[in-house]
Amino acid sequence: MQPLNVIVAADSALLRAGLTHLLTDHGITVVAQAVDGAELKRKARAHRPDMAVVALKEPPVREDLPLLVLAHAPDPDVALDLLDDRPAGAGYLLEERIPDVGRFIGAVREVAAGGSVLDPAVVPEVLGRRTARDAFTAREREVLGLMAQGRSNRAIAQAAFLSERAVERHVTAIFDKLRLPPSSRTHRRVLAVRAHLQC
User: Fold this and answer.
1) What SS3 state is found at 84?
2) Is 3.40.50.300 the CATH number for 123-198?
3) How many separate helices (H) and strands (E) can be counted in the chain?
């Protein structure tokens, strides 16, 4: 498995220690710890990690490295800020909803690899606040919500009881409605979620 260097930033010393122990147990190197955003910025410059796992009351979502934010409570504005100008390498999970260690470690590796992870509990709350959701059919909104969870077309098909071909049609319709042309430089799935949430 690819070596991975991480900074852990958390308000709580106990949480910093716990996250560090958990990551280390799964073969991930914790190169530094930080108690706030300013220290995270300094240590990121000094250690140049692959990503940061952040559990701060005020997470610095504008850092120039992949971030996985662990939140105490859902904050759609923070989730949106995290995705803003970040076509890849962003994650937002609620601490209490992380179902198991394996899924958490998977999310860490996904974000470090440039992927995106968004807690399912945040998606409906944010989507419900945006009038642009009216541009989509109910099925497209469902598919978009599953896309926001980082699911593949196959996983969406299983969750929504659709064929993969039907999912592909819905995804294409979403891209078309958001005017997101194919590009080798950006991840259209993440941009689709971000553009819809920011409307």
Assistant:
1) coil
2) no
3) 9, 6
Residue 30 burial (CB < 10 Å; 0-12/13-18/19+)? buried
The 10s digit of each residue's pLDDT in 160-185 is 999 999 999 999 888 888 777 776 55
Q: Round to whole Å and give the CA distance between 50 and 44.
A: 9
The residues that bridge with 51 in the sheet, in sequence order, are 6
**Tens-digit pLDDT profile for residues 96-110:** 878 789 989 999 999
Q: Specify the CATH superfamily of domain 5-118.
A: Response regulator (3.40.50.2300)
Helix (H, G, I), strand (E, B) or coil at 161: coil
Amino acid of residue 65: L
> What's the whole-model pTM score?
0.66
How far apart CA 130 and CA 2 sit, in angstroms, is 39
